[in-house]
Write a structure and sequence with these properties.
The protein is α/β, with parallel strands linked by helices and 243 residues long. The protein is 44% helix and 16% strand. It has seven helices and seven strands, in the order βαβαβαβαβαβααβ. The protein has helices spanning 14-26, 41-49, 64-78, 101-129, 150-170, 195-203, 213-223; strands at 5-9, 31-36, 54-58, 83-86, 132-137, 175-182, 235-238. It has a seven-stranded parallel beta sheet, sandwiched between helices. It is globular, with a radius of gyration of 17 Å.
Length: 243
């Protein structure tokens, strides 16, 4: 496989780390850019461990200006961008009746606006190349919305609709756009679950376990691979069979 330039957002979290690692293992020629914002220690360590192949970019996904600056840096350094993984996201769970309006706005901005800004920022380069892969990380909440996540579920459902619409717009110029919907994945996002909540969640999963970050990352890596060139506008669940 030839060298590819890959940008992964939310690269400090458990899933972002696994996705970046999957691309680094895929080919010794791959160059991975890690989009990070407030928390960055794990991403910076990954970059130090792979100094010739991995670098960090300061990126606030909710800011179109930050996206433009980040993509300009990638293109100045590598002259191309082959893969965008929109993985950054955030929760602020609450029942809708008492949800602060600011929680709604922040979650929509982080999870949906960020994907819009990211796709829009990379499209000029990918259109010029007549080739590109965009993989948007949504969530099982987009398909099976739980109580207390009206903002997050709405944002992730919007990501799926955006994915399918954009896929149709750019299919003829060699760009694929797909989404992954992880279920319960063993990352820091689940660290606040009690033992009782965890057991109850596992009982709803036919495989009776949570997924590993590497399992979700493998789905992302596949959708970005040459072998997936005829797959676009698709939604791939990684959930142990919940739906």
């Amino acid at each position: 496989m030839s060298a590819r330039v890959i940008l992964v957002t939310g690269a400090n979290g458990g899933l972002g780390q696994a996705i970046a690692g999957a691309f680094l293992r895929e080919s010794p020629a791959n160059l991975v850019c890690l989009g990070i914002h407030a928390r960055r220690e794990r991403a910076e360590q990954l970059a130090r461990d792979n100094p010739e192949r991995c670098s960090c970019l300061v990126l606030d996904v909710a800011s179109p200006e930050s996206w433009q600056q980040a993509i300009a840096q990638v293109l100045a350094r590598h002259s191309r961008l082959d893969v965008l993984v929109n993985n950054a996201g955030a929760h602020q769970d609450a029942l809708l009746a008492t949800m602060p309006a600011e929680s709604w706005r922040r979650v929509i901005a982080a999870n949906l606006d960020g994907v819009f800004h990211g796709c829009q920022a990379v499209l000029p380069a990918m259109i010029s190349q007549r080739r590109g892969r965009i993989v948007n990380v949504a969530s099982l909440s987009a398909l099976l919305a739980p109580p207390g996540q009206a903002n997050y579920a709405a944002a992730k459902a919007g990501v799926l609709a955006l994915t399918q619409s954009l896929a149709k717009e750019v299919a003829r110029i060699g760009i694929t756009v797909n989404a992954v919907c992880p279920g319960f994945i063993e990352t820091g996002a689940l660290s606040n679950m009690t033992a009782e909540e965890r057991r109850a969640a596992e009982m709803r999963i036919p495989m009776r376990r949570f997924g590993r970050p590497e399992e979700a990352a493998a789905a992302v890596r596949f959708l970005a691979a040459d072998e997936a060139s005829y797959i676009t506008g698709s939604v791939l669940k990684v959930d142990g069979g919940v739906l």
